[in-house]
Amino acid sequence: MTVQGPELHRAGVGLTGEPEGAGVSATPSLQFGRRVRRLFAYPTTGPLVALVVIFVVFSAGTSTFLNAGNMSLIAQQSVVIGTLALGQTLIILVSGIDLADGAIMVLGTVVAGSYASHASPLIAMALGLLACVGAAAANGVVIAWFRLPPFIATLGMYTIIAAGARLYTDSRSFPIDSDLLSALGSGPDLGAFTATYGMILWVVLTLVLGYALNETAWGVRVYAIGNSPAAARLNGVNVTRVVFSVYAVAGVFYAFAAWQALGRTPIADPSGYQIANLDSITAVVIGGTSLFGGRGGVAGTFIGTLIVVALKNGLTQAGIDSLYQEIATGVLVMLAVGADQYLGRGQRA
Amino acid sequence: MPKGPHSQDHRWGNRAALTLAAAMAFAAILPAATRAEDKKFLIGVVELQLANPFFGKLEKAAVDTAKKNGLEVMTAEAKTAGDSATQIAAVENMINRGVKGITLDPANATALVPIVKKARDAGIVVVTTNTSLQPREAADAAYETDNFQAGVLIGQWAKATMGSKPAHIALLDYDLSDKTSKARHDGFLKGFGVGEGDPQIAGSALNMGNAETGQTAMENLLSAHPDINVLYTINEPAAQGAHFAIKKAKRDVLVTSIDGSCSGVRSVADGTIGATVMQFPDRMGQMAVEAIIKAVSDGAKPSGFHNTGTVLITDHPAPGVDSKDSKWGLENCWGA
Amino acid sequence: MTEVLVATPDLAMQARGLTKRYGHVVAMQEADFDLARGEILAVVGDNGAGKSTLIKALSGALIPDAGEVYLEGQPIQFATPLAARLAGVETVYQELAVATQLDIAQNMFLGREKRKSGLFGAVFRQLDKKGMRRQATEHMQTLGIRVQSIRQAVETLSGGQRQAVAVARAAAWGRKVVILDEPTAALGVRETTQVLELIRRVRDQGLSVVLISHSMPEVFAIADRIHIHRLGRRAAVVNPTTTAMSDVVAVMTGALRPDQVASALPH
User: Fold this and answer.
1) d(Cα C203, Cα C199) in Å, to the nearest integer?
2) Optimal mutation site among C86, C143, C155, interface A, most CBs of chain A within 10 A
3) How many CB pairs under 8 A join A and B?
């Protein structure tokens, strides 16, 4: 049932107080290795290190990377995928995946955008929110109640919604003329660093979701279900309801992401963000959240988003072909997933 | 024996006369009937992504021209870029149904070559619209925008507009393995008078031909090269996205693009885009079908490459480069 | 033949005439069950005898087709496992039902998390983590289970320790009855001894314990009485101090008739 290595065995002192395991005298290098391992056991350590490395490398290689203006740019370029990836984090934590998140976000932008021209902006936003949550909840119903595999269910939803958005707009994009809808793109100028409201919102949303995951019963249950749905169920957790709620709540974040997108580019465009689903999954995985569920969190996703964006920004500045950007991102993903496997989290319930 | 009116001989004679008359009448009608059938034949129109107004207009023009000339049309569409399989199946279908001609907008320049050969071997006239096969001669003729020429036009316009000012060029390309993308890119460079890797090129970035990726790419380029003052974009949505980056960075950049969508022409009118080159998808559809009709009736097969038109649209004409203004553009644009 | 019901509150749990059919298969046939207060009752039986079906009926995982269950003299019906838990009957399943990546305290309170009192608990639904950890530590200490930290992830614990956590959880929440399904099945000799000691302490805390087991030595080491299940019903209840192990096995297999062993049923 369990695998006991000498290292893990040291963890306990037995049921009745007898020390277990022979004392292993550790050489200094072994001790250092253990300390490093323990540090890297925190899921966010690896991504943080990667982000620092990226910043150092690009700052050294390109004189235009490390300045307030470019840092502000990276932050601004992160808000859409970053917000989208918050919802994706939730879903991946319960061992699911959402290939439709980008499409749902785009649907939100075109719905809100189309009503903004002849209805009050608040109504337009409310309808956009409704569209996003509705679509995401549909995912939730199909996955939580009908038990369809998330990959397949969300793949189908992605196709339906992407086509739906095109039909809805006749495949046309149209500019947004509403201050409210594009509000997140503006913000105070702190010297050379522009702090957009979108950035602030992204940070706030990350903190709120982090609180929910770490300080509420719902959060504990999300992690428990990702770890072992059977254990959660046997302990009285209504797994079906919690999983559905995860998809529905993710939809709220997709709606915020739509608002972010309109803030950045005030155009409702059904052909935009076509690979946002892969980008959001990349951000989540690079950030240390395990695709198997039950491990990781929004702090990692925050860092993962910055990694993905900073990489693109830096490579463009350095004049390196876009295709190398994609290779670099792919390598990072594989490192992240590999690290997840290797760093001792192989014991899944 | 005396012969009366109902004698046998008389009846035989009557019958013979009637038969002969009928035969002559039939012989007279038959060629006419055949000619009418000849006039009304079937053609096939194979397109891409009809949800995109560009292709939508192309197909409509083809179908309208066919119907106006009394032809029957069967249409097919590949819904996603690169979906050659659907088009191959469609052409097979059309061969079976006995079409006399096919207009094809190939999803892939090489994958469609074998099936086109099969069609031409069966005596069907096959012409391409919007983009050609590789090699181009695999089809009878090609009706498309000369994308290289389109690039040359905006390159020339940009160069003429800059005059003697030092240029710092940014290129927002689409995947350069795409024929059209490469042609426009090369054309612009030629028109402007610079080669690959010329120091006047400050930087280049790939984007997906839509606003948000155009914006991100332009932001990153401007961050690295604040002195950029000339911009080539693969299409108008990318240019519109780049405009947001330019506005935010408070720079002055000469923006060029290609396509001639109505949205793009409006951008020329409001100053977002300096100059764009218009394509004429309806001419593609129309000319392609007319070529087929001519081939079927005269036997004169079409051949070669036919430029369906490239017109520079700008409200700031440059010396030495012909152009039309945005008002004209709005009357002739495609899309919305 | 159903035994006469002596439904007194002295008996922690009783069942009479439990029956369950799955199509043609009869999993339980007029099964009876008596659990005295504060005793450890071992339930033994050969494979296919119907032990797990009986236990599922008692823990709320299964609704019998017929029969009654009594808890401390009161008739009761468990529609769901949750209902059984709310009534005070806790079950430790063979798979343990622990979330390995959560820590001990989180596992102890899984499904029953405690919120802070006041504004933070009510409006922001904040968990009282300190309180839960404190309580978890107390429970573990009362049962004499030692671990490095209540905050260590369950996946870092050995098999015996995980079992201990699961038992401690049941003992912490159980108000009346704790049911343990093969708790030492996957454990080594030393850890088995430790878990058995733990079970004794649970009983000493005042809970009544039902122990399903395949291991005769273990049963004889710890049980106050032994319920022998055979062919979907109770064959006999014996006292381990007055009955030989071989006789118990013989009743299990049918070599001995139930009336050939001394009954430990109350009269």
Assistant:
1) 6
2) C155
3) 78
Which chain B residue lies closest to A61 (C-alpha atoms)?
Answer: B224
Of B210, B220, B244, the CB nearest to A272: B210
Measured CA to CA, the distance from residue B281 to residue B48 in angstroms comes to 13
Which residues is C180 bridged to in the sheet? Answer: C92, C211
Q: What is the pLDDT of residue A4?
A: 34
| pLDDT band (50, 70, 90) for residue C50 | confident
Q: Do B220 and A313 touch (CB under 8 A)?
A: yes
A268: closest chain B residue by CA = B211
Question: What's the one-letter identity of residue A56?
Answer: V
Residues of A in contact with C85 (CB under 8 A): 236
Distance from CA of A268 to the nearest CA of B (A): 10
Tell me which residue in A4, A11, A15 faces C194 most closely, judged by beta carbons: A15
Query: B273 near B264, Cβ under 8 Å?
Result: yes
Block mean pLDDT (10 aa), chain B, length 336: 50 69 63 54 90 88 94 90 90 93 92 94 94 91 95 97 95 91 96 94 93 96 96 96 95 96 96 96 94 90 92 96 95 89
How many Cβ atoms are within 10 Å of A122's Cβ, its own excluded? Answer: 10
**Cβ of residue B178 closer than 8 Å to a chain A Cβ:** no
Backbone φ, ψ for residue C28 (5° rounding): -140, 135
A246 vs A235: CA distance, rounded Å: 19
CATH for the C11-101+159-260 domain, from 3.30.365.10, 3.40.50.300, 3.90.245.10, 3.40.50.1820: 3.40.50.300
For A101-121, what is each residue's pLDDT tens digit? Answer: 999 999 999 999 999 988 999
**C143 neighbors C154 (Cβ within 8 angstroms):** no
A215 inside 8 A of chain C by CB: yes
Candidates A3, A15, A292: best to mutate against C (most CBs of C within 10 A) is A15
Residue A259 structure tokens: 């608002």
**pLDDT for B167:** 96
On the CB side of A339, CA atoms within 13 Å amount to 24
Provide long-range contacts, Cβ within 8 A and 24+ apart, for C132-140.
C132/C105, C132/C106, C132/C108, C133/C105, C135/C108, C135/C172, C136/C104, C136/C105, C136/C108, C136/C109, C136/C172, C137/C105, C139/C108, C139/C168, C139/C171, C139/C172, C140/C104, C140/C164, C140/C165, C140/C168
Q: Are A291 and A285 in contact (CB under 8 A)?
A: yes
Would the pTM of this model clear 0.90, i.e. be above it? Answer: no
ipTM higher than 0.90?
no
Local structure of B198: helix, strand or coil: coil
Q: Are B324 and B312 in contact (CB under 8 A)?
A: yes
Pairing of strands A189-190, A193-194: antiparallel
Chain segment C167-186, per-residue pLDDT in tens: 999 989 988 999 999 988 88
CATH 3.40.50.300 positions along chain C are 11-101+159-260
The first and second tokens of residue C131, run together, are 């309180």
Question: Environment class of residue A324 by beta-carbon count within 10 Å: exposed (0-12), middle (13-18) or buried (19+)?
Answer: exposed
Q: Are A124 and A178 spatial neighbours (Cβ–Cβ below 8 Å)?
A: yes
Six token digits for residue B199: 């120091």
> Rounded distance, CA C218 to CA C187, Å?
12
Number of A:C CB contacts under 8 A?
123
**CB contact at 8 A, C231 and C46:** no
Mutate to test the interface with B, among A64, A77, A158, A171 (most CBs of B within 10 A): A171
**Closest chain C C-alpha to A293 CA, distance in angstroms:** 10
Which residue in the set A70, A76, A273 is minimally distant from B212, CB to CB? Answer: A273
